[in-house]
Amino acid sequence: MSKVVRKAVVPAAGLGTRFLPATKATPKEMLPVVDKPAIQYVVEEAVAAGLEDVLFITGRSKRPLEDHFDRNFELEEALERKGDSERLGLVTEPTELARIHYVRQGDPLGLGHAVLVAENHVGNEPFAVLLGDDLIDPRDPILPKMMQVREQHGGSVICLMEVPLESISLYGCAAVEPTSENDVVQVTDLVEKPEVSQAPSSLAVIGRYLLDPAVFEVLRNTAPGRGGEIQLTDALRVLASMPESEGGGVRGVVFSGRRYDTGDRLSYLQANIMLASEREDLGPDLRVWLQKFVATLT
Ligand code: G1P
To answer: Coiled-coil ranges per the record (predicted)?
Structure first.
């Protein structure tokens, strides 16, 4: 079996209820972060790591997402007629990024179930899962390091980040042991969204995974867990206890770069401001305005 990861799976079937009414008729993945849909950052991250085969797990009412990564001849022609090659580039760019495929999840039974739906497309090879709510700053890529760990050891590799203990119940949480490498840990156990008092550490699972295909068989046998959903964290917990000869073993790469959470409203606003304030075109004016605005706050 190839140890090289070539395919990315991007679950995008969620209802986005935290952003209603904006997400009544627009998929949450299409909400702009500055001026680009959140999901495009994720695809760009996958492609930058060499993953040019991207499978979206979608659901009903995700048409705009498919349209975004497809041609729009009417718009392209209009921009061509105007000679606006800069904007034309912005329109065609998403269509040329990757080989994009879609499969619908059908029943929304949880993240673990969404990953299981990818089995037919992925086949018997390791693959990446990227969650759209986690935006990793392109200046701090983490997938290359995760791929290196996978190539070295096989098994599955997850991305972990230190978070304040009081917010650990928003995440999957890992119990770990150190390895000879500073930012790589052996995952011994996992728990999905624990109470603070039950958390084995303050290491949160961030939405980047490299999974051994053994995960599919495990997911098929994973009962609904937290929130009545089939949890990927629960399947990883099983993988962590399985022998490496059977595709088991889970390592964690501890991420210390910039990450933005676009999954809840406050973090989404912060992500927009932080990213816009660093942009060459918008940053200088925004920073001046921000400083004045902050001074008016008491
Ligand atoms: C999912 C996972 C959780 C992980 C999180 C990262 O939860 O179930 O383990 O920590 O993504 O963003 P969600 O935020 O989709 O509820």
So the answer is: none
